[in-house]
Amino acid sequence: MKIIIVRHAKVLIKNKKIYANELKKAIEEYDITPIDTNIKDYHELVEVANSCNYFVSSGLSRSVDSLALLGKEADSIDKIFAEVESPYTDKKIMKLSLFTWGFWFKLAWYMGFSGGTKSYQESKEEAFEASKILIDLAKEHDSVMIMGHGLKNRLIATALRQQGWIENKKMKMDNLDYGVFEK
Known about the structure:
The protein is of the alpha/beta class. It has one domain (2-182): Phosphoglycerate mutase-like (Rossmann fold). Helices cover 41% and strands 18% of the residues. The protein is built from six helices and eight strands; from the N terminus they run ββααβαββααβαββ. The protein has helices at 23-32, 43-50, 61-69, 98-110, 120-141, 150-162; strands at 2-7, 17-19, 54-57, 76-77, 95-97, 143-148, 166-169, 178-182. Strands 4-3-6-1-8-7 form a six-stranded mixed beta sheet, with helices on both faces. Strand 3 (54-57), helix 3 and strand 4 form a beta-alpha-beta unit. Helix 5 packs across helix 6. The radius of gyration is 16 Å and the shape is globular. It starts with a strand and ends with a strand.
């Protein structure tokens, strides 16, 4: 059995400067922004996709569109695979780049600040549930590919390892990078 976890293609969003209280809106914009379809050197990933029997997506357009980029369509869409929500604040704090605010809020999230979203512990539990769904699909279809999101993918990967799955190809946080888990 094999589970392949892939991070979606790059999203075409500008890393503009925003106030802290604008992060939630910026993330909502990120969720509907198109992906970069001018990708080079992803032929290996197309071959990997062609070896899979079942495809799963989070349902966010960047995941659905990334599967389409590989010539595939999701057999199953489930919001449990969506990216971990970033905490946010309503306080108008200095302007920093979107990605800098994202980094600082995710760091605060790891340290216990959930700011209107699921806590780190709740997100780990959700990722464990997501891993069980993928395991069941792998049992049924032998191989499954999930087109997901950076941090959620990491949490799912940890859950798979905890359940005895072997990571034969380690994934990075790069767009369209993937990890291979087998049992």
